[in-house]
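Dear Dr. H.,

I hope your travels went smoothly. While you were away I took the liberty of generating a structure for the chain from your last submission, since the lab meeting agenda had it listed for discussion. I wanted you to have the full record in hand beforehand rather than looking at slides cold. The sequence, exactly as received, is reproduced here:
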Amino acid sequence: MKSNLSDLEKLAELKQKGILTEEEFQTKKSQILNQTNHQNIPPNNFQQSQTEPKKKKTGCLKIILITFGSFILMIIITAIFMPEDKNAKTKVANNDFLMSNKPKNQQQKIDSAKIANEKFQSLSSEEKIASLEKELENKNLKKVQKEEIQIEIKNIKQQEFAKKNISSWDGSNPKLERTVKKAMNDPDSYEHVQTTFEYKKDKVIGTMLYRGKNAFGGKIVDKAVGTFDYDGNLLEVRDAD
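The corresponding predicted structure, in token form, is as follows:
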């Protein structure tokens, strides 16, 4: 910028001295001013023209990467979930076949029995008993098979009775204890000794040994027998013979 001003000053001096005509002065002046304007043009236009293609290239690259990433993600999801779904459908189909009455080889019979047992074990006690009682209605069952089913029903009832009606602390039955205490001369002197249970076809017999004071204040060992149904209801209490 300073160089251009110096040129203009020299140019004016040459005109004053008569070395340059007015026409030559104006021509040189225009050249110097044009050169100054060209130097003052900001480089932003050039830089912007250079950077814009880069932005466009960057935008295209992002789109390509996103598309490619989505494609890869879809492949991964398909690889993870589709085989499981296919295997699940295959397993259901196999189970349906194994639980059907269609002819099976020895291994298929074993697998069928396993599936049936797993299904049976997932049932509640009431559902198990109902299922077994329904099996007893099958007229094609042999005597031995019926006896095995009846034993299984009894075992389930026994386990259920014990779980709900026998104390895990001392093996007593709370209902039988309460009934015996009410009939004692001194309920506070009651001490449980032992209770045993005998499981019949449709009832449970509980025999309880206990200590307590008699009418004379002496502490004795006595015995009481309670009869229960399998729901745990106390049907009868009597003194042991």
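Two observations you may find useful: The CA atoms of residues 101 and 112 lie 10 Å apart. Residues 45-50 have pLDDT under 50 and may be disordered.

With kind regards,
E. W.
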